[in-house]
Specification:
- The protein is of the alpha+beta class.
- Among the domains are: 149 residues, Orthogonal Bundle (Penicillin binding protein transpeptidase fold), CATH 1.10.3810; 88 residues, Penicillin binding protein transpeptidase fold.
- It contains 25 helices and 19 strands.
- It has a 5-stranded antiparallel beta sheet, sandwiched between helices.
- Strand 18 and strand 19 form a beta hairpin.
- The longest helix is centred in the first third of the chain and has 24 residues.
- GO terms for molecular function: penicillin binding; peptidoglycan glycosyltransferase activity; serine-type D-Ala-D-Ala carboxypeptidase activity.
- InterPro entries: Beta-lactam/transpept-like, Glyco_trans_51, Glycosyltr_51/Transpeptidase, Lysozyme-like_dom_sf, PBP_transglycosylase, PCN-bd_Tpept.
């Protein structure tokens, strides 16, 4: 009987040793050949998902990261030999002897599993494990993920075939490098860089034998051997098993292994930041800028065909993203946002600063905390919201400053810029004058009869005085002359979008000609849009799409690019600009826009007073801009610009647009813009606006 049992076991061993060769060349070969051919091509170049990093403008300071799997690909020469040796000792002692499939390992596992009546021991080599991880990481459908991980003989056959093929194309070091960058170590640590960071707050290059053995021991079962949440008994036992194998393989001396086994596992944990809410709380508004980055990214066709694909690229593509945010300008914006300590107010006061000539957004700030924790927020001020709906203060992640799905806020008379600029671009001079009564009844707009805010505005006005005093009845007549649709279409060319059903209908070709109230700013707009639109005027009519980045680099260090309609490759982070109005028209609009701020235009007269005459004195350099308020002062705005920067600020209740901010708070946006421009430009030489030509002055 003992002889019979011994012979049986010997036969099993021989059969098991031959099984890989039989499986690879025989059973299932035809069924798997096509799939293997397809997948092998992927495996030769496949890279796992990698974390994208977001940097401050210095390109060095990490603000946050985006990842589903926290991973940074690391070359093997930047890994300590300790971790290379430890993973071989833990997972595949014969890694350097076999060619992808280890017959001895298969035989050993076969016998062990036959004796136990289950799966007590695996036979996967490091190469086979890498194949499985690469198939999983390169999968594009749930079915492919299932096929890569399901426990079937067919999957094992595929792995063996691919492992043998992979070892014909990749060296052992290349396979080991890819393996160590793909393996999961627990606690969202994918790859050895993430594991070294999360468990020991160091890089893979500096791992000691004890640390390397601890990490290598986790791959088999990250939860069972977890040294963080367990009492470390199992983790220590597994680590010591790896250390013993390292000694047996000659990687450590017996004495060094014994000394290492006597050491406790000493962790130094790091929690890597992820997404916008993880940005350092000391930068209260930087999360809103980060959120704008996400929304901008999700709208870029260069990163995918739809929002899901683009966000997947952000979280898995390993990009290095350098923000356009300027710390000095951002600090000025956060400092000067009105009611900056009044986070208990339903009224949001925010500001956005854009750079003329590039469209780069230099600052975004609002008197709110960017946070997902709404537990302490009061109920919404909107009576229609329901008793359990939270307000957006003091904490919120709503895109209050623009770049997201919110429609924005009625922008009032800041919209007067659009029909004025359209008129100038059409050849009408700055000196165009109209008698402007207190109330004007429009025949063009079916008897609509708007009034001015004050009787002091009555009289003959030009573009300078009409803009400086914000004379409604002047601008209705100007709009009648050029057509309301001309102002609407120009606003669109300068980046404005219509998001409410009412605005979309009024801006449609069928309705725009009759949208007389457009010039009074009845449409919603965001401070992001308004800052960038006015920045185009400061740039002599050259509009640049708003952009939150200075640079975007691929994981290989090359600039991320996209293909234009003409097939030209361009960097995604480069400004995208076009001339919207002629330069002389833009300069003329700026000359008129100096009147509201208390500045002196180069060519004309402001008529003796203006709506924000304190701005010039605060900024201390040439400045242009426009105030805006809505009916009952439900919202108040100011958009101002110098040759260097353009800023738009608002105050409103985002939860309830009918909750009026009141005249007493209408100065807050004026002060926010003026003080931010002053502080952001402090120490820089004062630049002059280019005056308009005599021809357009008239």
């Amino acid at each position: 009987m003992p002889l019979l049992r011994a012979g049986l076991i010997a036969g099993i061993v021989v059969a098991a040793a031959l099984y890989p060769l039989v499986a690879v060349t025989g059973i299932g070969a035809k069924a798997t050949a096509h799939a293997v051919e397809q997948k092998t091509n992927i495996l030769k170049t496949a890279l796992p998902a990698e974390t994208s990093y977001v940097y401050a403008p210095d390109g060095k300071t990490v603000l946050t990261m985006f990842y589903e799997e926290y991973r940074q690909y690391t070359k093997i020469e930047n890994m300590s030999p300790n971790i290379q040796q430890a993973i071989v000792a833990a997972e595949d002692n014969r890694f350097y002897q076999h060619h992808g499939v280890d017959p001895k390992g298969v035989a050993r596992a076969f016998v062990s599993n036959a004796r136990s009546g289950g799966v007590s021991q695996g036979a996967s080599t490091l190469t086979m494990q890498y194949v499985r991880m690469a198939l999983r990481d390169s999968a594009t459908t749930p079915r492919e993920v299932q096929e890569a991980t399901q426990q079937t003989s067919l999957r094992k056959v595929k792995e063996m075939r691919m492992a043998l093929d992979i070892e014909k194309h990749l060296s052992k070091d290349q396979i080991l490098e890819r393996y160590l960058n793909s393996a999961y170590f627990g606690h969202r640590a994918y790859g050895i860089y993430a594991a070294a960071q999360i468990f020991f707050s160091k890089t893979p290059a500096t791992l000691t034998p004890v640390e390397a053995a601890t990490l290598a021991g986790l791959v088999k079962s990250p939860s069972e051997y977890d040294p963080i949440t367990s009492d470390q008994k199992d983790a220590t036992g597994r680590r010591n098993y790896v250390l013993d194998n390292m000694a047996r393989l000659g990687y450590l001396s017996p004495d060094a292994a014994a000394a290492a086994k006597g050491q406790p596992i000493k962790l130094k944990l790091t929690t890597p930041p992820n997404d916008c809410a993880a940005i350092d709380g000391g930068h209260r508004s930087w999360g809103f800028y980060c959120d704008y980055l996400k929304n901008w990214w999700s709208a870029q066709p260069a990163f995918g065909e739809n929002r899901l694909e683009r966000m997947d690229k952000l979280r898995r593509g390993g990009y290095r993203i350098v923000l356009a945010l300027d710390p000095k300008t951002q600090a000025a914006a956060e400092k000067n946002v009105g009611a900056k300590d009044n986070t208990g107010s339903p009224f949001a006061n925010g500001i956005v600063v854009a750079e003329p000539g590039t469209g780069r957004i230099k600052a975004m700030a609002v008197n709110r905390n960017y946070s997902l924790d709404l537990a302490e927020n009061p109920n919404s001020s909107n009576p229609e919201a329901g008793p359990k709906v939270k307000a957006n203060y003091p904490n919120t992640v709503a895109p209050l400053l623009g770049g997201g799905s919110l429609p924005g806020y009625q922008a009032g008379s800041t919209f007067k810029m659009f029909p004025m600029l359209a008129a100038l671009n059409a050849g009408m001079p700055l000196s165009t004058a109209y008698d402007s009564p207190y109330t004007y009844k429009s025949a063009v707009y079916d008897g609509w009869a708007p009034s001015n805010a004050s009787g002091a505005m009555t009289g003959r006005q030009t573009m300078w005085s009409g803009f400086g005093k914000s004379v409604n009845t002047y601008f209705i007549q100007l709009e009648e002359k050029i057509g309301a649709d001309a102002g609407v279409r120009l606003a669109e060319q300068l980046g404005l979008r219509w998001r409410t059903d009412v605005d979309k209908e009024q801006a449609s070709p069928a309705k725009a000609k009759k949208w007389g109230a457009f010039t009074l700013g009845v449409s919603d707009a965001t401070p992001l849009e308004m800052a960038n639109a006015y920045a185009a005027i400061a740039a002599d009519g050259r509009y640049c799409e708003a952009i939150p980045v200075n640079a975007i680099m691929n994981r290989d260090g090359t600039p991320a690019t996209y293909s234009t309609a003409g097939g030209v490759q361009r960097e995604i982070a480069k400004p995208r600009c076009r001339q919207v109005v002629n330069a002389d028209a833009a300069r003329a609009a700026t000359d008129a826009a100096r009147c509201p701020t208390g500045d002196t235009p180069a060519k004309g007269s402001c008529g003796g007073w203006s709506t924000a005459d304190s701005v010039r004195g605060t900024v201390g350099r040439p400045v242009a801009g426009k105030t805006g308020t809505t009916d009952s002062t439900r919202s108040a705005w100011f958009v101002g610009y110098t040759p260097e920067l353009a800023a738009a600020s608002f105050i409103a209740d985002p939860d309830n647009p009918f909750n009026a901010v009141g005249d007493g708070q209408s100065q807050i946006p004026v002060n926010a813009v003026a003080q931010t421009l002053r502080d952001a430009l402090k120490g820089q030489p004062s630049r002059q606006f280019t005056p308009p030509s005599d021809q357009i002055v008239g």
